[in-house]
Write a structure and sequence with these properties.
By secondary structure, the protein is α/β, with parallel strands linked by helices. It is 40% helix and 16% strand. It has 2 domains: 86 residues, Rossmann fold, CATH 3.40.50; 123 residues, Rossmann fold (3-Layer(aba) Sandwich), CATH 3.40.50.720. The chain is globular, with a radius of gyration of 19 Å. The structure holds NADP nicotinamide-adenine-dinucleotide phosphate.
Length: 280
């Protein structure tokens, strides 16, 4: 059996069309143009190409976007100072901070963002709301993964779901969203013993470990739906965490990398931004 491809580009195209209409409506009804600021501290972690892609997508949708590039030597205090100014700027509705080098504290910094401009959904007030099922700002990568799963038409109620990875941005919120859909969820991580004994059990397997070839075909149940969130630069290529060539012969549905989760997460970040602008 060869898996059907979950086409992230197509799902993202449909989402962008809806978002463009929402932006136009917001301008027409309230005279508001949504404004996004992306903070990128230059380093190998920074994913500068993704910032450019977000900028381009904003242009297409009629959203204002500014990318602030800071040098690798930037401190927590400097970033917090910038955030305070952006919090007070009425033309800015959302702040997105790209992955930081280990000498900076993403947790400390993300808590300085005004919760109303927290388009990443990582401020503790938004996280708290999220955990009691009040979906104001849902972490956008997890929201994107749910859109991709929805696009397959599979019903999650009663299914066994396994999430590999437990980060604040991806693994934990995703496990919670799957639970809300009545899947039975296990979360695995780097200390899980015998990872395969969990993954082989999964009707739905979502992998966000950030390690190439974390999952091979012997670790996947026949007919499972496999979503690969991982993005790893290997030489000049981007690959996921799942051995795609092997696993596509076992799974019923699978996301490619690139062209799977990535395009949809950008759309979901902008979906959060438009919500923030509407309720500003
Ligand atoms: P992260 O914060 O580094 O978290 C990785 C998680 O994977 C951790 O919970 C870690 O466990 C777990 N892990 C690592 N190695 C493992 C292993 N061998 N077996 C089982 N679990 C393992 O990363 P993240 O921010 O969640 O991102 C994960 C991946 O998704 C990265 O490749 C990132 O680039 C990608 N990503 C893609 C998008 C997109 O739009 N496509 C967006 C965001 C992230 P511990 O907690 O025990 O350390």
């Amino acid at each position: 059996m060869s898996a059907q491809i979950i086409n992230g580009e197509q799902v993202a195209r449909d989402l962008r069309r809806q978002l463009k209409e929402e932006v136009a409506l917001l301008k027409q009804e309230k005279g508001i143009t949504p404004g996004l600021v992306i903070i990128v501290v230059k380093s190998p972690f920074a994913r500068v190409h993704v910032a450019r892609l977000k900028e381009r997508t904003c242009q297409q949708l009629g959203i204002k976007c500014q990318v602030i590039y800071l040098p690798e030597t930037t401190t927590d205090e400097e970033i917090i100072y910038r955030i305070e100014r952006l919090n007070n700027d009425k033309s800015v509705h959302g702040i997105n901070i790209h992955p930081l080098t280990p000498h900076l504290s993403h947790t400390l910094i993300s808590q300085q963002v005004d919760p109303a401009k927290d388009v990443e959904g990582l401020h503790f007030l938004n996280m708290g709301d999220f955990l009691i099922g009040r979906y104001r700002m849902v972490p956008f990568v997890a929201k994107g993964v749910m859109k991709l799963i929805e696009s397959t038409g599979i019903q999650l109620a009663g299914k066994r779901a396994v999430v590999v990875g437990r980060s604040q941005l991806v693994g934990k919120p995703l496990a919670f969203l799957l639970l809300e859909k009545n899947a039975t969820v296990s979360i695995c991580h780097s200390v899980t013993t015998d990872l395969a004994s969990y993954t082989r059990w999964a009707d739905l397997l979502v992998v966000a470990a950030g390690k190439p070839r974390t999952i091979n075909s012997r670790m996947v149940k026949e007919g499972a739906v496999v979503v690969d969130v991982g993005v790893n630069q290997v030489g000049s290529r981007l690959i996921g965490d799942v051995d795609y060539e092997e696993v596509k012969n076992i799974a019923s549905w699978i996301t490619p990398v690139p062209g799977g989760v990535g395009p949809v997460t950008i759309a979901m970040l902008l979906d959060n931004l438009i919500k923030a602008a509407r309720y500003a």
